[in-house]
Amino acid sequence: MIRHLLSGADLDAATATQILDTAAEMATVAGREVKKLPALRGRTVVNLFYEDSTRTRISFEAAAKRLSADVINFSAKGSSVAKGESLKDTALTLQAMGADAVVVRHPASGAPHRLANWVDGSVVNAGDGTHEHPTQALLDAYTMRSRLGRLAGLHVAIVGDVLHSRVARSNVLLLSTLGAKVTLVGPPTLIPVDIAAALAPGTDVCYDLDAVLPGVDVVMMLRVQRERMNDSYFPSAREYARRYGLDAPRMRRLPEHAIVMHPGPMNRGMEITPEVADSPRSTIVEQVANGVSVRMAVLYLLLGGNNR
């Protein structure tokens, strides 16, 4: 097992499958009366979040606590970071406190990689800038496998704001490793030039959502990250929804078995309509639940498994 989880590229097919299989075992804990395992008793997991987060932070906290680890939640707001403390000095402080794992979310791409050089414990990337978010890709893959029974041979369309999406990058890397075909869909302004070739050979790019829908097994809608946009990438929200939003008529173009995903949070009515988000085809709530099991598996294998 790897020491850190910083990128989807860190995972080969065997390691990724091991995590998914372990997550399936962890999922059985949620059905128990006592939802705890003693696997990480005595270990300390630090959630180091420099950006606001709901799902990811709570998911990692729940995962660590279900494994009986001690959890320290660190928010940049109200800490010495607000006084100008550097990431390195914060890392050295955590090191001195004996952190066995640091789960980090940071607005700067590459921050988790730097952090991994400064601490002895394992580092898990919980999202760095517009770069990557590997545990989100793992929970997405787990959800696809749970719903559709396989990953190899699936055709997955990732739709929307690819330019600013760390979720898209990690998913392309991981799904390609596991044998799925990925097509990136969106306006040309939101799909970086040559991103498909740079991430994984065989990844396609298409600018016409309606042309792609009839041939996919999974359609993953991405949030339009307007907070990261300093320029005008499309004429208007209404125009974006008309061209690239998933509504009921478009959902009917999907094959009967196809599922709809979204990493959240959603802009309801923009990239996805409420009737699609709340439909039986939607896995959005499942993805949140599966995230706890997947992150339990990651922490268990990094801290309690065979690399220590």
Written overview of the protein:
The model has no long low-confidence stretch (mean pLDDT 91). The chain has a five-stranded parallel beta sheet, with helices on one face. Helix 1 crosses helix 12. It has twelve helices and nine strands. Strand 3, helix 4 and strand 4 form a beta-alpha-beta unit. It has 308 residues and is α/β, with parallel strands linked by helices. The protein folds into two domains: 141 residues, Rossmann fold (3-Layer(aba) Sandwich), CATH 3.40.50; 150 residues, Rossmann fold (3-Layer(aba) Sandwich), CATH 3.40.50.
Summarize the structure.
Pathway: Pyrimidine metabolism; UMP biosynthesis via de novo pathway; (S)-dihydroorotate from bicarbonate: step 2/3. This protein is α/β, with parallel strands linked by helices and 308 residues long. It has helices at 13-27, 55-66, 87-96, 111-116, 134-148, 166-177, 195-199, 209-212, 237-244, 248-251, 274-277, 284-304, and strands at residues 44-49, 70-75, 101-106, 122-128, 155-159, 181-185, 204-206, 218-221, 259-261.
Alpha carbon gap, first and last residue: 10 Å
Q: How many β-strand stretches?
A: 9
What shape does the CA trace take?
globular
Low-confidence stretches: none
| Portion in helices | 25-40%
| Overall CATH architecture of the largest domain | 3-Layer(aba) Sandwich
Report the mean per-residue pLDDT as an integer: 91
The CATH class of the largest domain turns out to be Alpha Beta
Radius of gyration: 19 Å
Q: Give a quick account of the main beta sheet: strands, pairing sense, barrel closure.
A: 5 strands, parallel
Our estimate of the beta-strand percent is 5-15%
Order of helices and strands: HEHEHEHEHEHEHEHEHHEHH
CATH topology of the largest domain: Rossmann fold
Query: By helix and strand content, what is the structural category?
Result: alpha/beta
Annotation field: number of helices: 12
CATH level-four homologous superfamily name of the largest domain: Aspartate/ornithine carbamoyltransferase
Return the domain count. Answer: 2
Q: Provide the spatial order of strands within the biggest beta sheet.
A: 7-6-5-8-9
